[in-house]
């Protein structure tokens, strides 16, 4: 069965970079209500990002954010069924500290905890804390994370761990109690190093692509890599849903949200990825309406949204989909009542010419 989850808006502005879109605030109360609504309406998981520096602009996008692990610990108490997936940056936490934190989250949640592992690629975000090692290139960051996760897995299962690696050094390191069940491990990234890491260690892989055939190829690729490691892995993707009574009204909403695209914040985000400023400016200028959204967008009536999501899942073969809403409190219940039952029932996929 396909899994459906939500990407919580733990940064102000949520996932649309626009001054004409709804602007969720970075508060525990807002996220708690969204999490409870997700559980009530049949979603399978809730996930939060880790973010420590925003992108400015007219909306101060993500200038205010909550911390993922502590937030999700609270939401574990506020919910009973949904899986609780929190994000950790491996360069900010010693693996022994992370092992203890997630064992605790696993107890609080009753075995629902998941760790979204982020290697760390945004220099400014970590340099502000003095935690950006300029000597580590992309390959070295993955070697570090490979050691980090190996240490984590050992600490969760062994009473004493001694390890003298390239990066991780532990001496008779103890982390008890061990979790009754190992937390779910999830990661994202499309580089060969990232996919190999996911295949060796992760239970879930979050993927993006330019189109549905590309997403199918990416899903098949990481699953094949996992099989070669004697493992299996689930694949997930993300989509922003803009719902209304009719396709025309939903499209009008989508255009209105895009109209106020916060170009400055969008450009700042792109340069944080390492893109040159002139390239970031030209990319954003080409179609700022679409650039306001950070994922692919599905807009329309409940019937249209159901059909398009069913097609996405059917064509790509992904095992799960994480949904983003402009206004979680208003939009999530509509999706839960008008779309989710049809998805669970296996809505038919329209044949396109």
UniProtKB/TrEMBL annotation:
Q: Which InterPro entries does this chain map to?
A: Luciferase-like_dom (IPR011251), Luciferase-like_sf (IPR036661), SsuD_RutA_monooxygenase (IPR050172)
Record-level Gene Ontology MF annotations? alkanesulfonate monooxygenase activity
UniProt keyword annotations, A-Z: Flavoprotein, FMN, Monooxygenase, Oxidoreductase
Domain named Luciferase-like is located at 3-314
The record's Gene3D superfamilies line, in alphabetical order, gives: Luciferase-like domain
BP GO annotations = alkanesulfonate catabolic process
**Cited PANTHER family:** ALKANESULFONATE MONOOXYGENASE (PTHR42847), ALKANESULFONATE MONOOXYGENASE-RELATED (PTHR42847:SF4)
Q: What is the designated name of this protein? A: Luciferase
The protein's organism comes out as Cellulomonas soli
